[in-house]
């Protein structure tokens, strides 16, 4: 039983720095990029910025235990440093599986490869630096988009979901985690403010919160849960619903 519980503890990355990227005023903020500076502090940043992140990662491992099928592929699209990939690989009990982890940020990919190599397992992992819009998938029993779709242009979102559906085998699963917006303005404002309270409680200053938000404004475009579900239905998925939510962050499952 203890071993089973240990397998649900999220992977911790060593030699990471505290996120202080926006602690001092920046004259020209520009748009957000996943550069070397972000990659260096990303584990701290995501834990302090994304409510429920650790739970989502560990539960992705639980879903892998249920849905990964033998002789199949698993894709982690927008893998960043490989947290979801590692959680999946720890839970795979099926033979002849392979994980493809993809990110378009070279600093993320380079660090991801080191993290993958640090945790030995039988399931092979290939880490690729590429735009996920260009990835050709096949024979997939599981695909993960963990806070990735929101960084694609709206025109590309449906296309990527269509490609995923076509690549999944019967009973294959897509895990789609995103920051959500809400059509009800009162609810949207409440959850927006609670997210900022979450950041303050984790030690971020008003300056840090404001500067990061401004950099993300033109890069991370959020959708409502209803919009996500409609896109998934349009792609062909019949079984779609939200399985995790904390404030305006959450995750949807779509089963073929």
TrEMBL record:
Enzyme class: transferase
Pfam families the record matches: Methyltransf_25
Reactions this protein catalyses: prephenate + S-adenosyl-L-methionine = carboxy-S-adenosyl-L-methionine + 3-phenylpyruvate + H2O
UniProt binding sites for S-adenosyl-L-methionine: 53, 78-80, 103-104, 131-132, 146, 213
EC number: 2.1.3.-
Example of a GO biological process term: tRNA wobble uridine modification
Keywords carried by this UniProt record: S-adenosyl-L-methionine, Transferase
Record domain Methyltransferase: where: 74-172
Chain segments annotated as coiled-coil in the UniProt record: none
GO MF annotation terms: carboxyl- or carbamoyltransferase activity; S-adenosyl-L-methionine binding
Subunit description: Homodimer.
Described function: Catalyzes the conversion of S-adenosyl-L-methionine (SAM) to carboxy-S-adenosyl-L-methionine (Cx-SAM).
Family statement drawn from the similarity comment of this UniProt entry: Belongs to the class I-like SAM-binding methyltransferase superfamily. Cx-SAM synthase family.
Protein name per its UniProtKB record: Carboxy-S-adenosyl-L-methionine synthase
Source organism (scientific name): Gilliamella apicola
């Amino acid at each position: 039983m203890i071993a089973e519980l240990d397998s649900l503890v999220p992977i911790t990355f060593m030699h990471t720095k505290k996120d202080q990227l926006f602690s001092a005023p920046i004259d020209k903020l520009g748009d957000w990029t996943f550069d070397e500076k972000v990659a260096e502090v990303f584990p701290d940043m995501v834990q302090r910025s994304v409510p429920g992140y650790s739970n989502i990662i560990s539960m992705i491992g639980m879903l892998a235990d249920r849905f990964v099928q033998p002789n199949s592929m698993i894709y982690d699209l927008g893998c960043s440093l490989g947290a979801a990939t590692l959680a999946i690989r720890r839970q795979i009990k099926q033979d002849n599986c392979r994980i493809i982890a993809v990110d378009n940020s070279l600093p993320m990919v380079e660090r991801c490869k080191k993290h993958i190599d640090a945790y030995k397992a039988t399931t092979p992992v290939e880490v690729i630096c590429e735009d996920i819009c260009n990835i050709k998938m096949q024979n997939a029993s599981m695909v993960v988009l963990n806070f990735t779709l929101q960084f694609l242009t709206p025109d590309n979102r449906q296309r990527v979901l269509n490609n995923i559906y076509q690549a999944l085998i019967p009973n294959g699963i897509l895990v789609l985690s995103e920051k959500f917006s809400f059509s009800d303005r009162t609810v949207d404002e409440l959850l927006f403010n609670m997210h900022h309270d979450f950041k303050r409680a984790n030690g971020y200053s008003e300056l840090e919160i404001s500067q990061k938000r401004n950099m993300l404004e033109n890069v991370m475009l959020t959708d409502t849960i209803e919009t996500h579900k409609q896109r998934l239905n349009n792609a062909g998925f019949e079984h779609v619903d939200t399985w995790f939510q904390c404030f305006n962050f959450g995750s949807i499952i779509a089963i073929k």
